[in-house]
């Protein structure tokens, strides 16, 4: 549905920041099935800023035309191409596996944990 509404050269951005799930492999599998290009970007700044607890942020950008995302190659350390894991299939209306997306240490992190 989103791709049908996308203008030529347009992008879809998915905010994937969270403490419990690694969504990269799932979205990479979906992108592969749809024959589209994707990059993941992470900003690892975390701590306490102006008295507020901050956590790292993460986003995935998808495009039907690979050259649309070429500028992201110029930002190493922040953006990289999505990495597909062949053991994790794309989620569909008929299949999802939330356990496979859990970060390995997510169950141990207390909700009130202060980032380092």
Described by the principal axes of the CA atoms, the overall outline is globular
Please state the oligomeric state of the protein chains shown. Answer: single chain
| Share of residues in strands | 15-25%
Q: Summarize the amount of helix as a percent range.
A: 10-25%
- Identify low-pLDDT runs: none
* Major sheet strand order: 1-5-2-6
Structure classification: alpha+beta
N-to-C SSE string, H for helix and E for strand? HEHEEEEHE
What is the rounded Rg? 16 Å
**C-alpha termini separation:** 40 Å
On the 0 to 100 scale, the average pLDDT is: 84
Largest sheet features:
4 strands, antiparallel
Q: Tally of extended strands? A: 6
Number of helical regions: 3
Provide structural commentary.
With 116 residues, the protein is of the alpha+beta class. Helix content is 16%, strand content 24%. It has 3 helices and 6 strands, in the order H-E-H-E-E-E-E-H-E. It has helices at 2-5, 24-34, 70-73; strands at 11-15, 37-43, 47-49, 52-54, 57-63, 79-81. Strand 3 (47-49) and strand 4 form a beta hairpin.
